[in-house]
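Example 404, ligand zinc ion.
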Amino acid sequence: MFASLVLGAGPPVDLDWIRTSLLSERQTAAAQIDMVTPFFSRARSFLSRVAVALAVVVAGSAGGSSAVAAGPDAPLGTVRQQVHRAKSELQKQVTLGDYHASAYHPTAIVERIHALESAAAWAELCAAFGELADDELELFEDEVRKPDHLSRLSCAPALLRRIDAYWRAAAGRLAEAHPLSAAPAQLESIAIPVDLGRDGVFTDGLLAEGQIAITFDDGPHATRTARVLEILRVAGVRADFFEIGRNAAAHPEISRQVAAAGHVVGSHTFSHPDLGKLPERHAESEIESGEASVSLALGRPVTEVPFFRFPYGAKTPAEMLFVQKRGNTTFFWNMDSQDWKIRNPHQLFLNVLQQLDRARRGIILFHDIHEQTVIVLPHLLQELRVRGFKTVVFVPQGSVKYRD
Ligand SMILES: [Zn+2]
């Protein structure tokens, strides 16, 4: 799981990271790399390493020589055991970083099966999914929806019907407990200009009592980001989005949609690694290429994408210095929705209200990639209005793009 491959003179490239993050996108990844490489030379060496490592992975898979085992004798357990473990694994993790690194994260489980390129393994996966409760199956939704997986999972249409019905019911229960009024809440957001000339680091944003900055990380998502945008538009709310470069490269039109709607788009590295654990040069490549991918998606110079957030909030003193030196304003948060972990919309709603009532001001962290986040958002905006909170959005000072 932690095999590392050193390519050329660059920093080590984690083969499993490449496999997990890019294998299911291999049809399009090479084209994206070709497309973006001429545009930002700072990221070129990093992307070249990704391309080389990707070729190794693809060649390995094509030859059927995968070293990844998911069979009955594998140390991680049978396919069935692994799939059944996904929910308890989520529940036991305290941090998102640990969850992403887990061998029992749904992405890790399904990618191990994918790497086998075995119809029998996919059939075993379908059988295991069939045994899961809805709230366990839901964890695998994004994996099931990936085109490379969809085409191999004969049970996918039936699974997705179940998952859709599960979310409809969960949304219905929240709406029953906390009904939305017929006229959606109107909030509007005050823009707070950020002086880019200073070494800015924001945790609670030094906001006044009652001021809340809503932030979304890890998008853009193929379908959920647009739904978030529509909910914000109806409420008149603007937010700060911190996009993963890889996702912005996959969905540049959605990145542009976010910016066109008046939101501020910052970057969040290229592939969302834990920068606290990476060698410095590799971490710097991640930061630079993430920002370059987002700016390319938006069609703006990198100087127009000055806001940055460390994945998991994890950083080293040297990395903090690096982002400050290159003129980034860095955002953390003082309220965490925990929307990666709290999958039940009603529970998520209550947790966010508790966070808001406790802190009363500051920056709240969401992810626009989760279904439960989309479901709770209109309810939360209504509660903000009812409780008299004001929403604010941080904007780079002097940027023509964000002038009111
Ligand atoms: Zn993140």
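Summary: Residues 1-72 have pLDDT under 50 and may be disordered.
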